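User: I'm new to structure prediction. If I give you an amino acid sequence, what do you actually give back? Let's try with this one:
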Amino acid sequence: MNLKITDRSKAEFEFYLTTTLDMIGRAVSGEMKAVADGYSALECWWAKDTHGKTLPCREPELLEKVFRSKKSINLQVKLWAEDLADGMLLQQSELRGYLVGWPAWVWTATIGQARKIAIQKVGFVPTFLQT
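Assistant: Good question. You get back a string of structure tokens that encode the predicted 3D arrangement of the chain. For your 131 residues, that looks like this:
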């Protein structure tokens, strides 16, 4: 497999690897055993996340942590988006405070999901969700 990992993918991997938000159960590696001549956790994550391919991994614990973190971040984004769309539970200024030090894509994803939820609920994007 030709592994041309982008800088953005590397940055996402590093974010997932270093975040403490990784509480959602087991992920894709499950009972995966380390393969001495396998790929790094970054390479395995990229192949699975980008192409849906599972590669033999020499760092299954790191791979597991990254996938747990991704699931946890996705859940958090969903919860924040639902709260933003509600219009009463969370305001953008409060969310910005939570996201200090987080990658910009988390903000973009949360606002995008909140807009979709609002459109489903009320048929338009309320002014409090316009940036």
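You can read the tokens as a compact description of the fold. Here is one thing that stands out. Residues 60-86 form the longest helix (27 residues).
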